[in-house]
Amino acid sequence: MSVKNIYEFPEGFLWGTSTSAYQIEGGISNDWSEWEKSEKRINELKKQGKNPSDFISGQACDSYHLYKKDFELAKNMNTNAIRFGIEWARVQPKKGEWDEKELEHYRNVFREAKRHGFDIVLTLWHWTSPLWVTYENGWENKETVKYYLAYVEKMVNEFGHFVDYWITLNEPMVPVSNGYLKGTFPPGEKCMFKARRVMNNLVRANNGAYEIIHQHYPDAMVSITVLWSYYEPANKFNFIDLFLVKIFNFFANQLFFNKIKKHFDFVAFDYYFHNRVVAYPPFIKNLNRKTNDLGWEIFPEGIYSVIKSLSIFKKPIIVMENGLADKQDKYRASFIVDHLLYIHKAIEEGADVRGYFHWSLLDNFEWAHGYAPKFGLYEVDYKTMERKPRKSVEVYSAICRDNRIEV
Ligand code: BGC
Fold it and tell me: Which pLDDT does position 3 carry in this prediction?
């Protein structure tokens, strides 16, 4: 006879999916769409033997027109919360001008989400900016902080009453490092001084946005999402490994958070990576027993350690992104269950985790990797825009419906 173990989640736990505007909406003109077409980018892709047209976001999933369908899919999975973004370039295509038609569009998006009863997590900035901002030197320019805050003020005035959780900036250190150190994101720079300037402007942007939202809604829940990876020493008795873990933790995980100490109400983290640290280059050597389609190691126990580290902030925690590129849906169901079991363990031990958002609802435009990686619970046919559930949808739907896992 087999015995079932049941793992209940706290009452009112948020079950959701995460998306971002640029990755799903389609038809957007901003700094990223320009970067995709730039000579620098195209030459680089050709050099790598890749076809540049696979790296053009274009119509994406056409969620701009199909958002009702997408919310329905999310609702059918029994999720009670949803995270989506507003595209700054749409609502403010020109400096100082608001596009009323686009504001109305987003108003309808919010209404539709509320019609389904979702708690709404709104991302205000998920790495993309209007072109007029880019032409003024983007986030390197301190003025951009002012522009961003004017945008935030407008969004709060227009849509504040719909929003349950605010994300001012998505994983700010990713565009800092990819855009200004590695050169793989726009503007394709490799300059430490610029990276530092951009980071500091993003800190100002978050802190200012936090104040604005709280002036309008004193009880608002505001945060950034942070990509918090799990670093562990390959040998826990080797003091160089241990020292390097500290360095990685400091720069990759903690640095931005330390700078916004009084300006977040909850911890929203994204967990994708485990890094086993060794004392010799390239300093990360994972065992990679199981990997996803991008070669990223699948390491569920890492999420438990991450939650433990984040508990020191003594604030509510939400898993704002967790997912994998898995076209054949080979691992997604077990990935979800295994990560949730570790989240449950952390909750049992006292961690205040309030929700889990799977990345992502749909296959979508995966930034520097283009369209090849398939992160969706739903598969998207980019020609017909048809959405088809992958098998793991059944598993996630049952968990969301029952607020528990049975193993
Ligand atoms: C980002 C998403 C991205 C996902 C998978 C997260 O860091 O917020 O935009 O698609 O990772 O790479």
Answer: 83
